[in-house]
Amino acid sequence: MKRGLVFAAALIAVTALAPPAGAQGLPNVIEGFFPTQLAAGRTNVLHLGIPGRGDVTGVEISPAAGITVKDIKRGDVREGSLFWDVTIDVASDAMPGNRTILAVNQNGRTAPRPITIYSHVPQISDVKVVSAQVSQPTVQLQFAMSETPNEIGAAPYVWFFLGCGGEPESGVVKGKFAGGVVTAAIPNPRTQMKPFAPQPNAHCDLEVRASDSKMADSNTVKTAVDFR
Q1: Using only C-alpha atoms, what is the Rg of the chain?
Q2: pLDDT along the chain (228 residues), means of 10
Q3: Domains of the chain (ranges plus CATH)?
Q4: Nearest CA to 75 among 224, 222, 195, 203?
Q5: How far apart are CA 168 and CA 109, in angstroms?
């Protein structure tokens, strides 16, 4: 796939407006977002992390050709940043390659960050928790993963958020891919003496996504974890 493509179209930003709210300014950075790219021919939900509590009233992507920002909703707080759920439609004929993304409100705008459009990305489904014992150092899980053409590789990265009533435990591990299934072991926060570590019979929420060999992210799947 070619990267850094030159677009002949003018750099016209697409902006989706959320309902007006408070008048706090935005910090000048987007700390992070996931998935880390957009997929052509799909409705993408981008989780955008911005420090502070300023309201996001718009998201702009440049060049704008083939992009429609449809909705912006306030999400939850993770690792000190407020995450916003941004729904973005990408046309099937949108040109793959590099673009930029920034967030705005009434009083400011963040610095632009690079974002890539891929012609295809992996999909995950059927996330299952195989083992979740409070006495064990890891939580064992598996899920189906597919991509056409297949660029998954033997050891895809598995990203996770594990919330048990406090700030989620988040991180990334390497999984093993074979026969269309990824297996992975994520750290059990109880063994790390975290204040929000799960207790026996605790019900926790797990979010999982995975990256293929070209570091394109999959969709995010949520499931429950019941520790024993």
Answers
A1: 19
A2: 36 40 57 91 91 84 96 84 92 95 87 94 95 87 96 97 76 96 88 52 84 93 88
A3: 14-118 (2.60.40.10), 123-226 (2.60.40.1930)
A4: 222
A5: 28
